[in-house]
């Protein structure tokens, strides 16, 4: 099951002409592994690697490995929600917004840590039943995604070279 999140549109920093990005241009050069029909690994949420795919630079199933960041910013929402994640450019439906990063630990260790720390805000996401990504102290910008009943992004669990990673993907144009 996909988790849902909401990325706020940063209207003051976007223009109608900014639909294309560097990653969109890179994706246009890729000719293979672009759909679950042509790439069995993609169908299983597994990214290709040079060892598993012969297409090299033409493989389109290496988004997390190629992602360079950008296009998002953290701002104070000015209300009880605290900080939130804002789009600084347009994202197409299905576009990679970012990766949820932090310290990976066993879920039981994280539960103990929460009891020991006296923190107001907690930034974490489950990788699976056994492991958690704690973004409280070593996280990236995506930890500021806010929950929404009308989400425009989702969290997808991908395997990249044997490691589980969490991609934040646009569900609709942002």
Distinctive features:
alpha+beta, 15% helix, globular, three-stranded mixed β-sheet, four-stranded antiparallel β-sheet
The strand line-up of the biggest sheet is 1-9-10-5
Share of β-strand residues: 25-35%
List low-confidence stretches.
Answer: 10-22
Q: Can you tell me the overall shape? A: globular
Structural class: alpha+beta
CA radius of gyration: 17 Å
Straight-line distance between termini: 22 Å
Proportion of residues in helical segments:
10-25%
**Total DSSP E strands:** 10
Instruction: Provide the residue-averaged pLDDT.
Output: 82
Count the helices. How many?
Answer: 4
What does this structure look like?
With 174 residues, the protein is α+β, with helices and mostly antiparallel strands. It is built from four helices and ten strands; from the N terminus they run ββαααββββαββββ. The protein has helices at 22-29, 40-43, 63-66, 107-116, and strands at 3-5, 8-9, 72-76, 83-87, 96-100, 103-106, 124-126, 131-134, 153-160, 163-170. The strands form three sheets. It has a four-stranded antiparallel sheet. The chain has a three-stranded mixed sheet with strand order 2-4-3, with no helix packed on it. Strand 3 (72-76) and strand 4 form a beta hairpin. The longest helix has 10 residues, at 107-116. The chain starts with a strand and ends with a strand. The model is unreliable at 10-22 (pLDDT under 50).
């Amino acid at each position: 099951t996909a988790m849902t999140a909401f990325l706020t549109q940063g209207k003051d920093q976007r223009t109608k002409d900014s639909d294309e990005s560097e990653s969109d241009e890179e994706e246009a050069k890729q000719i293979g592994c672009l759909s679950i029909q042509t790439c069995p690994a993609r169908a299983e949420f597994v990214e290709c690697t040079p060892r598993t795919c012969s297409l090299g630079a033409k493989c389109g199933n290496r988004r997390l490995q190629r992602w360079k960041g950008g296009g998002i910013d953290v701002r104070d929402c000015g209300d009880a929600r605290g900080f939130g994640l804002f789009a600084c450019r347009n994202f197409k439906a299905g576009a990679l917004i970012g990766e949820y990063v932090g310290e990976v630990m066993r879920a039981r260790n994280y539960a103990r840590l929460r009891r020991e720390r006296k923190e107001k805000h907690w930034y974490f996401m489950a990788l699976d039943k056994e492991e958690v990504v704690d973004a409280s102290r070593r996280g990236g910008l995506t930890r500021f995604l806010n929950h929404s009943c009308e989400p425009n992004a989702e969290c997808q669990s991908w395997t990249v070279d044997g490691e589980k990673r969490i991609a934040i993907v646009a569900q609709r144009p942002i």
